[in-house]
Amino acid sequence: MQREGSPFTGVGAVFLKEYADHLSSVRMRVLELLVVAIGVVIVAFAIVNMRETVTRDEFLFLNLFLYQREGSIVPSLLGVLAILIPLMAIGLGFDSVNSEFNRRTMSRILAQPIYRDALLLGKFLAGLCTLSTGLIALWLLIVGAALITMGVPPSGEEVARSIAFLFVAIAFAGVWLAIAMLFSVMFRSAATSALCALGLWLFMTLVWPIMVEVLAPMLATPDPLAARLGLPSDSQVDWYLGLARVSPASLFGDASMAVLQPDPNMTRIPTIGMLGQLQGMVRGGALPLNQSLLLAWPQITALIAAVIVVFAIAYVAFQRQEVRA
User: Fold this and answer.
1) Which of 82, 116, 133, 319 lies 20 to 30 angstroms, CA to CA, from 271?
2) What is d(CA 144, CA 150) in angstroms, rounded to the nearest whole number?
3) Minimal CA–CA distance to 277: which of 260, 290, 259, 292?
4) How much is the pLDDT for 270?
5) Span 83-87, mean pLDDT?
6) pLDDT for position 269
7) How far apart are CA 281 and CA 288, in angstroms?
8) CB–CB of 78/176 below 8 Å?
């Protein structure tokens, strides 16, 4: 049987309906309030401390995302977003598909001139746009707070870098939204899909970095000279990078640091994923924007590829499911 018409028929209707439901739902209000409240507190803490400690900085506005006082338990805004973004994405996507089965509305929706892939794509785009709306609102709050309290407007390059970081954050959110929707397709119980998504997030965030530290030396080729000097061998670093970048959080952290930290020679140490790419850099000079984007491009591409792969798996699983009235 051959399809008639465009395969994207109905994507717009599903997108608008789901987007309106997300924005008006109590769940989204709670998530937005949580993100905005925590973000404002972290930024206010950074502004107060930067007034006392930072005398002059060419990229003062970007420090709002990265500043963390030495010895303080308060994390940077980047560290907070690395935790909150997956939670927001999972909160929006864990019941996006199985809720239609549980309410017995899936057969009614597919009885309309809407293909299954259009339904799944519309739900994903609606969730991604909802997350983007929350992140853009937080970004505007940070810009407004910096203008009002610091009295120094950000430069054009700082604005461009912060917009690039916003794009990286949206791609990172897309990965976890696709993962949440995959579990929503695989399990009919919303509690099971939420538990699996949260369990995978905890594994990738807490357990996987510890496993990488253990597995990299075991799989690497021994290097007697590096062992004598107490340094990791090239093979060990390669294994470490390859295994660590399985986690979306590692890709997000590497890409964000490359975009938000133009001068890797500052007191903040770049991640290990940037060290090999920074060889040959002239000390004392900040990277231009295009070079920072090239530095972050492999991680950004990996995040986008992860979104496509996970969504494709969810699409295949959804196409194979039986829908009954």
Assistant:
1) 133
2) 10
3) 292
4) 42
5) 90
6) 38
7) 12
8) no
284 backbone φψ class: left, alpha, beta (φ>0; ψ -120 to 50): left
Environment class of 43 (CB within 10 Å of its CB; exposed 0-12, middle 13-18, buried 19+) = buried
Q: How far apart are CA 22 and CA 99, in angstroms?
A: 14
Q: Please, what is the angle between helix 156-186 and helix 116-145, to 10°?
A: 150
The residue-averaged pLDDT of 173-187 equals 94
CA distance 216 to 165: 29
Coil/strand/helix, residue 181:
helix
The pTM (predicted TM-score) of the whole model is 0.86
Identify the helix (H) or strand (E) that includes residue 216: helix 208-219
pLDDT at 282 over 60: no
Other beta carbons within 10 angstroms of residue 215's beta carbon come to 14
* Burial of residue 122 (number of CB atoms within 10 Å: 0-12, 13-18, 19+): buried
1 CB contacts (<8 Å, ≥6 apart)? none
Task: Tell me the per-residue pLDDT of 108-134, one tens digit each, with 9 for 90 and over.
Answer: 877 777 778 888 899 999 999 999 988
Backbone dihedral region of 57: left (phi > 0), alpha (psi from -120 to 50 degrees) or beta? Answer: beta
> Cα–Cα distance between 127 and 106 in angstroms, integer?
18
Query: How would DSSP label each residue in 59-107?
Result: TTTTHHHH---TT-SPPPHHHHHHHHHHHHHHHHHTTTTHHHHHTT-HH
